[in-house]
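User: Structure with zinc ion, tokens only please.
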Amino acid sequence: MSHFYFSNTLVEKLSTARHVVALTGAGISAESGIATFRGADGIWKKLKPEELASMETFMCNPDLVWEWYEYRRKIIHNVTPNSGHYTLAKMEKYYPYFSISTQNVDGLHFRAGNKNVFELHGNILRNRCVVCGRKVNDVEFKKGEKIPRCECGGMIRPDVVWFGEMLTPEVLYASFEEAATADVYFSIGTSAVVYPAAMLPAEAKKNGAYVVEINLEPTPLSTQVDESFLGKVGEILPQLWQLVEMKNNQDCE
Ligand code: BJW
Ligand code: ZN
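Assistant:
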């Protein structure tokens, strides 16, 4: 376990902030055992999911896309949240206003106990009809079987956001609102290359938030933030939060 140095400024800002927001990406779930998309061992190195996660591929080859999602669902089903997720759950309890805008579709923030979560790219555990949009939860697909169909005849697809598709407007609007009003904004475990999510930290900064990045490696965002920590979120965030809790306990004495 590495030990990190945190500035007094950051600890002070976190202990006095009223509104804290975190943008999260695949990196926060990596320590739970879910592969990231673009990191060193990212799944997209082998499978080119930029192509898999598209309506075009789904329409041409729905079996392949369903197979990929069923594979990932099984993994997600068998993992648990990690210390990064649990620290964000503690933070939600502490602040008057706290939210997460997540690009992850794995639902682990909810499983860790967070309630105020905006799922920018949907949720892999849900499905919907490509024709009428009806939400369908319990469908299974096994290799070699027919693609699940809705009552209306349309194909069922995972309820996630693929490239070229609009994010749910209410979720996107709320995430921008949260960014624009945050005192401290975290960008955690995201390569910050997928838009419009990648615009959120800049929106926060423009509106006066103190912006903090946590990632294994530098990203296009790193030079724009107030503080950048290179390492595992499951180590950095609990250590930082412990300092904030210690400071608050001292201030109460
Ligand atoms: C750790 C760690 C540890 C590891 N601790 N860190 C503006 C400019 C340019 C392009 C566009 C633009 N606006 C829109 C676009 C197009 C496109 C886009 O962004 N393309 C770019 C790639 C160039 N965007 C879209 O199409 C979006 N829609 C849209 O904009 O609609 C409007 C519109 C529509 C039509 C016409 C015109 C406008 C939709 C984007 C949907 C993205 N969907 C996916 C798949 C979701 C479903 C699924 O899961 O299957 O979302 S793609 C994939 O990338 C997934 C992720 O949520 C997303 C982001 O990835 P993330 O989370 O950052 O993961 P990684 O793997 O990239 O990074 C992990 C990081 O963690 C790494 O940095 C590691 O170092 C780090 N890490 N372990 C800390 N332990
Ligand atoms: Zn339908």
